[in-house]
Amino acid sequence: MKLSGIRVAAGYVVFALVLFLARPTLGSLAIAAPIALAGEAIRIWASGHIEKTLALATGGPYAHTRNPLYVGSVLLALAAGVATASPWAVAALLAYFGIFYPRIIREEAAFLRTKFGDGYAAWEREVPAFFPRATPGGPKTSRFQWSRVSRNREWRTLAALPLAFALLWARGAYLP
């Protein structure tokens, strides 16, 4: 099984663990909601620019960070951690991201460097791998398209957000 497949399967296991460890309150859910919305907004913005393996996305959020989908995912995980009000759940989330994301980012960079050569090198010189730069940099060649958001199936993450919050709310309201 490829690392990406293991990462996805492990994500489901970690979510179940986080849900088990969670002790959410209405207050923790309220604080987490805007963080989750910001993370998903970044993911939608990024999904509207990317055409996986076909073209190098360098516009929109890709002019601020080479990995905006992962930045959005980290914000979603941060929101989950805040929502759970559990240091153990936060530790599980940190472990998951610490184990998988640095390696995935390196592997994807190596693939893109090989596939897009000088175009990737120019973008890589201007745009940081993860922590976003305040002003856009690099060639900025891609443009946002809603059809890409659909093709990249970002609707799945968008649909999962209310479900995750509902599960966390139910966990806090009905289980000790």
Written account of the structure:
The protein has 176 residues and is mainly α. It has 6 helices and no strands. The model has no long low-confidence stretch (mean pLDDT 94).
Q: What is the count of structural domains?
A: 1
Arithmetic mean of pLDDT = 94
* The CATH architecture: Up-down Bundle
What count of helical segments does DSSP give? 6
CATH topology, by name, is Four Helix Bundle (Hemerythrin (Met), subunit A)
The shape is elongated
Assembly state: single chain
Q: Could you tell me how far the N terminus lies from the C terminus, measured between alpha carbons in angstroms?
A: 37 Å
Helix content: over 70%
| Largest sheet composition | none
CATH class categorisation = Mainly Alpha
Proportion of strand residues: under 5%
- Strand elements, count: 0
User: From the helix content, strand content and strand pairing, which structural class follows?
Assistant: mainly alpha
Order of helices and strands: HHHHHH
- List segments where confidence is low: pLDDT < 50 over at least 5 consecutive residues: none
Radius of gyration equals: 17 Å
